[in-house]
Amino acid sequence: MTAAGVILTRMSGQLRVAVVGAGAAGLCAARHILSRQNNFLPPVVYELSGGVGGTWVYEERVGCHDNGLPIHSSMYRNLRTNLPKEVMMFPDFPFDPQLPSFLPHQEVKRYLERYSQHYHITPHIRFQTVVEEVKPVAMETGEGKVTWEVTSSGGQGGPRTETFDAVFVCNGHYSVPYLPSIPGLEHFKGTLLHSHAYRVPEPFAGQSVVVLGAGASGLDISIELAGVNAQVTLSHGRPPLQVPLPPQVMLLCTGYSFNYPFLPRAALGLQVQPHLVAPLYLHLVPPAWPSLFIVGVCKTICPFPHFHTQVQFALAVLEGAVALPSRADMEAEIQRETDRKLSEGVELRHLLKMEWAQWEYYRTLSRLGGFPPPPPVTQSLYEEVWRQRQRHPQNYRQLNYQLISDTQMSGQLRVAVV
Length: 418
Ligand code: FAD
Hints:
The protein is α/β, with parallel strands linked by helices and about 425 residues long.
């Protein structure tokens, strides 16, 4: 029996799906589940905070909330998106046309709130409710049949366990700082901060700061620190740290670790390292558990179109429109793909980086799942912005783009700089 066949032999009626998290990925999962009422009951979306938006909910405080839960968001006050809204948007839900292409974070939060309302997701979200455990329970009636027990706390009453046919894990992976080992750090007397806890540049005015890591946050934060007359040294690449440790401040923009405290990793056969979650077939499904979907683990992608594509594919799997290969075949393919990348020199910590490979990935999932891929303009604009960012890291956000429907030529969307 194929893995997908396992799902299709459900006893009767619609499938009941749990969604962990009401950030962009969880909202997207809920939106598509709600649109397929023939096959799915309304989802239960668990959200530990009091609102939707996840990463996009800026929190001035650092550390913990009053209830002891760690602050989830890594947003800083002046953040503007590094993708234009024409690329960032869910392909079926544009941003407000009046807004500029590169948005302050507040606008993305508003957009996600609008998405949640528009698709009537909000009533299905259990706010202030933490998923503590997601556990597979084998059913008696035959090989591989699985239901999932989700135990949550908070909300009303004590811990509660409910049963589902499938689970979408959408808890995000930009919350738990990754701290590299730095020789001599134990003797450092200055301030040590990870970008997760960075909010505003003013406290660094006039100071000497080493920013370690030149990813999106490292670059942006360096630029804003330079704007308040901090002496910034941007350290990146290999060998790891070229300069002596500074006297005052060091800011680690060294990325984040994957973290799934609610998943029984050993029982699921999942390996979770700071930069890797494996094995996941098509970066989404553990081969042994094809009714568990870990959404959005890839990096250097267009997150919202990525979620939109993965979620539709996952639902097509649950509906039986896509038959996954057998567990052994999925595992073999993952191994082949991993070996190929490693033999090409890709480091283990970059195995989930997609970059230009994302477009073929979307086309593959869309073809298999029988739904349209993100429009070609998403790719061409993404690539154009990528070039602009290389050339003008300080002011590429000043450009505004506009999507134009090219009905006479090809029916495709084109893009213009306005
Ligand atoms: P999140 O937004 O992190 O949402 C996860 C949700 O799960 C949260 O609401 C959290 O409270 C909830 N949760 C977690 N654990 C539990 C639990 N146990 N129980 C219940 N709920 C739980 N993307 C772009 O497209 N453009 C950008 O310009 C951009 N800039 C970024 C800048 C920064 C600083 C960061 C950190 C990220 C940026 N991103 C950007 C990427 C961004 O993370 C994604 O766009 C997207 O918001 C991720 O959505 P998510 O739903 O996967 O995760």
